[in-house]
## 1
Amino acid sequence: MTGRLIIRSLYTNFTQHFALNNNTVCKNRILVSVFNVNFSTKPKSGFVEKKHCNVGTIGHVDHGKTTLTAAITKVLANDGLAQYVSYDEIDKAPEEKARGITINAAHVGYSSKLRTYAHTDCPGHADYIRNMISGASQMDAAVLVVAANDGPMPQTREHLLLAKQVGIQHILVFINKADLVDDELKELVEIEMRELLTDFGYDGNTVPIICGSALKALNGDESEYGAPSIRKLLDTMDSYIPPIVRDLTSPFLMPIDNAFTVPGRGTVVVGTIKRGIMKKNDDADLLGFGYNIKTTLSDIQIFKKSVSEALAGDNVGVLLRGMKIKSVETGMLLSAAKSLQMSNHYKAKIYFLTRSEGGRKKPIFSKYSQQMYSGTWNIACRIDLDPSQHMMMPGDHGEVYLTLLEDMVMTSGQPFTIRENNVTVATGIVTDTLKSIDVPKGKLGKVVMNYEV
Amino acid sequence: MKLRAKAYTKMIFQLVRRLHTSPVCRAAESSLLAKLRKKTGYTIANCKKALEMHNNDSDKAEAWLNEQAQAMGWAKATKLAGRTALQGLVAVKFDKGHGALVELNCETDFVAKNDKFHKMMEDATLAAFKFAHTHLQAKGPITKMELDSEQLGNLQAEGGKKLSETLALFIGTVGENAVLRRAECWKANQNEVKITAYTHPAPATPGDYSAGKYGALLAYKQPNDLQDFGRQLCQHIVGCAPVKIGDKEKDKPAKNSDDETCLIFQEYLLDPSYTVEEVMEQNKLEIIDYVRFSCGEAVESNMPGVEKQPLDTVQTLQ
């Protein structure tokens, strides 16, 4: 391991001196760039990680979601910021397979003056849920499209419910077909939308509402509701959706990728800091597989250079005081002292793959026990359905309770998969940490579930 | 905070602008429109048209809207008729001697979650259930009647309206295509024949009506003194999707138990150590017939044993 590190650091030094002119370098360019960033890492608060944002459109089938998406690319293509994607290309987007799950989704990329956007458009509720669970693209914000001549429809409630379910915090409203009606009606649509948004727990009074006509913009119209309305929508997206910031305020957390012994010094664990700031001589906990070991960070190194602190995103080696190599296992977590609780009991959203996606043929019942894989580790896990459900069919998604054989740390939003006979049958994300429950004699089948937690 | 302040200034600006530019009566009209829309739920453009036609008399406008709704619904339904609708629900309603299984489709699963869709589903299922009661021809242990989209639309719902009319109204409201796909009406002609049903996802408290993505009807015989296995067996049918009941003498079990399509040879869902046949023997069960709908599946060739009859040859009590 040490050897590998030395070679890597030599390699980075090497590439700094010579131009990137051979193939092997190109292959590793991402790796290299990460290393170079690490060398120059300095504590900067509020550092913007990337100017990237995931958005989606939701709305009624006939209200012009697809036309809007096409219009955005068209308007930006004229400004040289995107490639024009026609209505038909978006509408007939092929089914994609993300982690083996079939999702009907159109992904369109474009960039505004400030950011790059990945734009998702799905036809159905289940598609958005699968998109979220498989992690194909997490949506930071959604544009709710509503036609001015129809107003909100009965199913608009279901659209907003979905936005809540997939955890979208920022919603923008685009009132489409605004050229067809007078101001009075637009105001009414706006009032109704604000009321509806408030009903669903969004701040209805401050949600930006933009009126325009996607069709006009698509036809290159430069009047008020044409292309300028699309630019206004993009400007609002830039200003209203906050940028993703590296989390430097939370207590630090680092999943362990590897560990080795440095003779005469002790045990070094290697990994990438997920969040927070690590400082030399901080107290820390090493957690996982039922163990909670207290330790201190004696030294932090970023590629052979000892540093006094390291930030989220840094790949570091940490020397742990009084730690035996035997106690460290890949998949454990190093966290700030007393910042995290281990548990073997979690709530999760899960999707069971259909037979045609390679999943099970038969339904799933409570007490279903299989191996769970997440991050760099795997462990035996039992799945219990919500008590209101008798069974789940392949192709269903829903909330389940997970019980692990040993205590582990899992954070909300952490993805996992369930494999049966070396075949992935389900994938999901953790939504809640629950109180640990007893596993009698290490037998998951004998666990008594307590649903009231 | 900055955003909020911005929004407030915008709101105040709008308010002031409105006071300046529009006469007070415009505001009153607008609120009349808002009220009418809230009350009726018709599209904004139509509400406005109705108010304009009736000089802002909201009662008259509402009456006119309700009158027009049917026609507008038909117009919308005709316009959307060609669009694929493969989402939706399967619903069942049953009592001891009768059962109805109905599939209603729509374009997106958002609509399938809406209350209005659920109401439509229930109306259709009740109509089919009533049809099972009034459907008189008796032949064999059970009478089965398979209805296609057109026949189902001709059934009368609660209040004497045709289902197809209710459906057109519904299409007018949600602006999405919807199809009464198919239905299955059953009636038991012997006392010992029982009918039961199951849908997935099942409701928390079992009732005689439920709706879900999958549904099944089952007719069976079982002596009364034993624990009733009908519902569990019906759950098995929904879960394992057998293709046919299977005959012990003619059919052979498949090599891989996962691929088994004959009901009797399948592993029993609630206790895989037994086959369905063993469970049936232990409990003196006899399965007469079953039918399973999965929402959005292409309508397969008719189940064996089901005779397709034109509606008008069927005697009804009305």
Note: The two ends of chain A are 44 Å apart (CA to CA).
## 2
Amino acid sequence: MKKSTSKKASTIQDRLEVLQTRVVVERDSVSSISSSDFPFHTNNQYPNHDVLERLRKKIKIAIEKKSQYDMEFDIIGIDASIANALRRIMIAEVPTMAIEKVFIYDNTSIIQDEVLAHRLGLIPIKADPDQFDFKQSTEHPTDQNTIVFKLKQECKRNPKATANDTDPKQLYINHNVYSAALTWEPKGDQAERFKNCFIGPVHDDILIAQMRPGQKIELEAHCEKGCGKEHAKWSPAATASYRLMPEIILKEEITGDLADKFASCFAPGVVEVEKTNVDGESIKVAKVVNPRIDTVSREVLRHKEFEDKVQLTRIRDHFIFRVESTGILDSEKIVFDSLQILSSKCTMLLKALDLKLKEKEEVDTSQKNDNAMDLDV
Amino acid sequence: MDYSDNADNNNNNENPDENDSDLEVSDILNFHTEKGTVIDPQSMTFSISGEEHTLGNALRYMIMQNPEVEYCGYSIPHPSEDKLNIRIQTTENTTAINAMRKGLEDLKSLCAKITETFCEANNKFDEKNSIS
């Protein structure tokens, strides 16, 4: 009897543990969503609580895959609010350079000026944003805040085309305007400052417009520094997203033909069927090999036979980040910048708080002085 | 590449206004300005302009980690108004302003810790891949 109560108590502990550390994926719902990692929440105590020590100890980071413009990494031990702040900053607040003003001298193509300008804006421009300042609307363009590109192209008939040709490629010259046609015009000391680094479109083969003989485009485009929250063209991230690490808990062993069925409920490679020898007999056993690549389709929960044998969860503080760059910034640089921006937001608010308190103090003391003066009178 | 150096000194690029005038910086954060405010050092609503859920939620989480904080919540009262309100209520052992300051400082050093850990992982990955 005693034994059974102690066993029951431990299962309650275990369940609580699951609810605190896991997001539970059920057949037609997701439960235990919100974090409970706060002092005095449920059975949390945190005596002699040092916030930072506790949080800092938990943090682990591992890079899974990395190329120059694409990376996948795990951050373990942070809260969703922090992970989400980083994701949002990567998308919307890491600055880059993009075409913002277009001066059109001549455009006789069928694409309207404003549509052309919009298309130009969306072309990723490779230039180190750290080397430039934000241009305030009241400021004039300088070599510190603007990059100038020129584009001049005229479509002509190809004199070598034969009467039978129908392909525009054969019939015309310069009928496709590609991003490669944007030529950088260094201003001020830019030629000297950027002699070792490339400035220009990331891709040369982005089609901007099409023309026919006699049509012409001539324009000047000004790049400015900006953030994705103003316009997505400034976003350095093609994708910046995270998901929680999936976890498949087997409550009891799944064997025989059921093991094959079980494995087929998951994405390929997540569950494998292994053969083991029990009492001289070879039986098939399902083993969870790689939950990371699971899509958490919940297919397994549709089948009655697995109902009490499996639980699907996600690990609440294990974030799998995927950051893909548009080609302007290295993916790792996007992550570093986002952390730095979050930190500088705090610095700025601390400064604002101090200034506000000083202001208040000054007002208070001057009021006191006024009162004192009144008394003197 | 090593980015750890710039983790501590926040460059001015991110805050173009920083050098303009201190007045602008002090306008970012306000308190005792919301309607119906009762002046009480233990419970205050801070009003921040120029910030959204990005900082609001992260800061709320950090402030709630403080055991002296009884309540902390944030809201963006209207999407077309550039305003983020953070409400803090504390025990008598501290004040809302101190809780706010601690939250900001904690968030900042958490960032530094993540940067440091990320740097290590990044260097480790680079080393491993340059060998193989």
Note: Residues 126 and 328 of chain A are 5 Å apart (CA to CA).
